Amino acid sequence: MLAIGEGATPVFRSISYYIRHTLRSLNRNRWMGAASIATTAIAFFILGIFIMGVLNIQAISKKIESNLEMVVWIEADTERSEVENIKTYVENLGNVTQVKLVPKEEGIKEINKNYFNSETDLLKTLNGDNPLPDYLVVKVAGPEFVKDVATKINALSNVDKVDYGQEYLDKLMALMYWMRLIGAGVIILFLLAVIFLIGNTIRLTVYARNKEIQIMRFVGASNWFIRWPFLLEGLVLGLVGSLIAASVLYISYIVLIDNVAKYVSFLPLIKDTLIVRNISLLIVAIGTVLGGIVSFLSLGRYLRL
Amino acid sequence: MIQFCNVSKVYDGGTQNGNKSFVKALDGINLKIEKGEMVFLVGASGAGKSTLQKLLFKEESPTTGQILVGGRNIVRLKKREIPVLRRRMGIVFQDFKLLEDMTVAENVAFAMEVLKFSRKEIKNTVPKVLEQVGIAYRANHFPRQLSGGEKQRAAIGRAIINNPPILLADEPTGNLDPDTSWEIMKLLEEINLRGTTMLIATHDRDIVDSMHKRVVTLSRGKIVSDRRGGYSRV
Ligand SMILES: Nc1ncnc2c1ncn2[C@@H]1O[C@H](COP(=O)(O)OP(=O)(O)O)[C@@H](O)[C@H]1O
Ligand SMILES: [Mg+2]
Question: For a FRET experiment, which of A94, A259, B21, B89 has its CA 20 to 30 Å from that of A80?
Fold first, then answer.
């Protein structure tokens, strides 16, 4: 009588068996497989975009939060002496560290220098009529004082408006909230589609290979030997799909940053390619594991051993 | 080698007219088969022949009773132990169960591959086994190119590839003409003479009568006769 262990061989022979059979069934189910891969790619690409979007918004809001400056716009026809009074008042407010007056004469010079060539005299073009208001640049001791100081200054007569970054922060936070909500919704929908499609591909493979599975069971193949090719198939679908997503995400983010960042230099966009790279790698890992888990679960349902 | 002690099998037959129905496929079976025996299991369709074999290779579990194979009780085998049991028995079916996209040699090699034999062992063993079951001249043909008898030879070759001590055959000649059936039975007898314990379910009266082996007759799940010689006429 032949003992059971006899004839057992090094693992690599089984691996070649698994790979051959996985390729065979991927080929047999190629349309279902292609649909799974495409959906996986889309799902993980969207996931990647949302992660990068959220990270960038976080970086921007951090920058805004750390901004201690505000700009106080004085009403255009206010006397200079009155402006000086406002300046003194603001200087004496608590937690204010610095106040700088930018009179409208200086303001127009700035604009002239920054936006026109040296031959143009903007003031002359406007017939000596300067439409700009005076403004104050106010610095406070810490980010937590910005709002309070701004409110006090805003209450003064002759003050038109106080601009400070934290105003935008609220809008940004609202944007982020909606982005997260919609992003999560879209991603969950796509992940459900991924689960359905990969699960269905595995189910079709199980049905297509039903006779083969029966024979394997009756000759005494171990349960894991029968399962492995199916798990591999799911892993491969998840891997290929998320690999596509990660590559497209990585390349398009780098191209985007290269081309867009210089036009919006005031935005602290994430230019560190290491972060995109890590997120791309994370996406590949999640995609592969998801493919494996989905095929494992659908094997539990469709493969009776 | 094989022993059934008071084995019964009741199938859940689904619901009929709102009542749950049950099918008693086997009823109080006591049967002992010695090492090296060749036993025919006969009886009308629905008598329980296939069920008895399925209990042996653990495709079904008995409702009550104990079953010993090679001295070991298989009633409470763990799931991962079932393949080990099956490696000790070759199983042959009426419908051959050959893979259509593989040649005869590949079909036999496939069984060795899933049992993790090395490539070298596979290369050495397959031609010998094909020779033994008389199908070597068709080694590179596909099942669709073979006659029924040739297919069954290939299937038997696959079943004995790892020299199992037990061979179970469920109506192995059910799809074959009388002459071919006779050849297949003779092949199985040859294998039995090399020491393989054999349990063959069939209702081929003429063959059973002329083989002069032990014949166990089932009727409605009960053993109604167990004797050497021919088909019993109950
Ligand atoms: N899986 C099953 N579920 C319910 N009833 C079954 C099942 N398999 C067999 N039976 C019933 O059990 C009885 C015995 O069947 P079987 O063992 O196949 O007999 P045989 O092989 O002698 O023709 C029959 O009445 C059959 O209908
Ligand atoms: Mg039957």
Answer: A94
